[in-house]
Amino acid sequence: MSRGAVMIECLYYAKTTPIITVDDWKPRLEDRFQDESEANLSGAPECIFCEIVSGKAEASIVFRDEQVTVFMDIHPVNPGHLLVVPNEHASGIDDVPEAVCARMFIVGRQMARALRRSGLRCEGVNLYLADGAAAGQDVFHSHLHVIPRFRGNPGSLGLQADFSVVASRDELEVQAEAIRNSFDAAGDVV
Ligand code: 5GP
Ligand code: ZN
Fold first, then answer.
1. How many structural domains is the chain composed of?
2. Which of 18, 23, 42, 152 has its CA 20 to 30 A from that of 182?
3. pTM for this one?
4. What is the CATH number of the domain that holds 124?
């Protein structure tokens, strides 16, 4: 997308969407950690993202390399919602080594491109990272959300996932396959 088109998209959202706070955006995941003190900081099995990275817990993996793993979010804001996580456990973004942090954002950018080419509905993308309980972080293994957005969705922080809905493994696998295929074809995730 050209810089002009990005500007127009930004202006479109600025004009058509109300200002919504992060608290409005997302209900708490009551069954997860309430704050950092309850989080597992060692990469032990209680960390669901460590379990996914190690293959002990089920997930629809889209991409992985030595530094990061990308998988489908189980409570997607929209179909195609991805999480980019460091392979080594790190609670907050400040605990992630700089090179791995850079890789998270480089891969996040590539996932945004893949989503736009995947055939899944994707008219815009939010890259979102909650760092700390006060910022809305629920799972204390740092992660970058890559979220397809549609015209008419609530404003950029008004993502409004419905946490009562759990996506089925079958539909997540179909979406993961579409995204994998699009970046394979583009040849830009190495
Ligand atoms: P946060 O609120 O910390 O920014 O985001 C945590 C995200 O992790 C949420 O969007 C939530 O849906 C997702 N999540 C929580 N548990 C699981 C799980 O077991 N599997 C997957 N794939 N995603 C999860
Ligand atoms: Zn972890």
1. 1
2. 152
3. 0.75
4. 3.30.428.10
